[in-house]
Amino acid sequence: MNILCAYNANIDSIYHIDGSELSCMIGKLESEDSAFSDSLQKKLISLPGSISSKSDFLAGLITCMHAGSGAEWMISDSSVFEWIKKTFIDGSFMRMGGNMGIMSNVLSELGASRVVPNVASLSKLQLSFFSTNAIYHPFEGKLYKSSELVNLLPENNNNPELIHFVFDFRKGDVVSFSGQDFTVPRENRFIATYDPLNFELHMDEEFRNYSLKHVSEMDGAIISGYHMLHENKKSSSQDDSGNSSSSCKEKLDNSLKQLQSWKNIRKDLHIHVEFGHFSSNDIALYAFSKLSPIVDRIGMNEDELAMLAGLSGINPGPILEMNSVAIADAAISLCSDSGLCRMLIHTREFVVSVSCMKNDDPEIIIEAMNFGAGCAAAFACSGKLADRNKLLEIASDIPESEFGKKECSRLAQHIEDKWKCSTVCGSHDSYQVTIVPTRICDEPVSTVGLGDTISAAIFLRELELNS
Q1: Which residues are bridge partners to 163 per DSSP?
Q2: Is residue 211's pLDDT more than 90?
Q3: Is the model's pLDDT at 36 over the cut of 80?
Q4: How many CB atoms neighbour CB 413 within 10 A?
Q5: Are strands 114-117 and 93-97 parallel, antiparallel or unpaired?
Q6: Is 357 a residue whose pLDDT tops 90?
Q7: How many CB atoms lie within 10 A of CB 181?
Q8: Among candidate residues 86, 97, 90, the one with its CA nearest the CA of residue 57
Q9: I need a surface site. Which of 110, 289, 397, 438 has the fewest CB within 10 A?
């Protein structure tokens, strides 16, 4: 399979933070600044959603740890980024980051023939994190593997390193601050991101030219990074009333034109978009509504689905509780309203697919979903990507989620027209609905990239089975 990948690749600096360390840090900041405690408490009540101060950063981290949820907040102040880097860089380890960067590596390791990624900032360090199997970079009109391109980049290459800080935390940790204690209910991560290029949905010109010239040779495209778009506080353009208009929608529209240009050349190009955690509800709704009629499928987790559902008047509570019926119903409702044909919702416990395509083979979807769940579980346990046979061998010893199996049974009772499949599938509200349980690693090496891993693996396996 030949696959285009865009838009966001960066370097993740992963830090395992525990409750006692966080408690000590908060205590130190409170002792240094008498107003810090009040500021933090206010931020916890009214979450800022982005980071322009130390209290913003800690409010996001504490909130995620308290709920056992994941989020990504953008850093808008370079001095805060420098403080985070100074505080945590020595205890972290670096790896490929960005949804697209991770997914391109998954595709390469699992056996794709040619994976061509967009790289916003081409540097030797960034290149070192790409898979050596099937990743090819367009450069000066030719394709190069990373090891080849490293030797071609000039020594004085000034492209910036795009580093995101990922804070992993574990179930059972206790956090104490301002006389309050809480226990982390489950493992997850909080991401603090300072990345001006991917904020802009930057498209490398070499990639742009290659994609248009060679899209007829490609089997699919996997796209992400829209969640990094944010409203500009200042804009050079104004509408007729004198109000500033954000350019983020223009950037998204330019991307949509590119995707449509690919489709115009190759109508059967299968495009999957991984949605991501948006800091702006308006941009999230705009992105979802504009992408839905163009792309073939959008993937997301339960947090992202709940956000979209809530904005559409659907109760997000049961979705966040990982109620499979609520998740399937919300996905169908959003697809029906937007014109999206397929949606994939991946949770810690199970994966749900909904599709309006009557001729989709449910057994292909089931095999692909089980393949993705197995690859993600093996990656969680080992922290490493490997060839598919090795990953599936590891996965065979990892038990299926008991919660996930119960939710499969719950959804089976809800589906109107159940089909004879190897797992729960059927027709509901004119949509094909399929669910499989995930496999749960009790002591994961890392939770970073599991959603990207499962989506990329499912995408690749479906391409193979439908080819």
Answers
A1: 11
A2: yes
A3: yes
A4: 9
A5: unpaired
A6: no
A7: 10
A8: 86
A9: 397
Rounded (10°) CA dihedral 250, 251, 254, 256: -100
Burial class (CB in 10 A: 0-12, 13-18, 19+), 433: buried
Helix H or strand E segment including 83: helix 78-88
User: How far apart, in whole angstroms, are the C-alpha atoms of residue 134 and residue 422?
Assistant: 32
What are the pLDDT digits (tens) for 147-178?
Answer: 999 889 887 777 777 888 999 999 999 999 88
125, with CB counted inside 10 A (0-12, 13-18, 19+), is middle
CA distance 197 to 203: 9
What are the E-state strand segments in 75-111?
93-97
Rounded to the nearest angstrom, the gap between the alpha carbon of residue 97 and the centroid of all alpha carbons in its chain is 10
Residue among 228, 279, 336 at smallest CA distance from 9: 228
The DSSP result for 162-173, as a single string, is -EEEEEEE-TT-
Q: Over the chain, what is the mean pLDDT?
A: 91
CA distance 311 to 81: 31
Cα-Cα-Cα-Cα dihedral sign, residues 249, 251, 252, 258:
positive
Pairing of strands 342-346, 350-355: antiparallel
The phi and psi torsions of 407 (rounded to 5 degrees) equal -70, -30
The letter for the amino acid at 438 is T
Q: Is the peptide bond before 7 cis (omega within 30 degrees of 0)?
A: yes
Name the class of domain 298-467. alpha beta
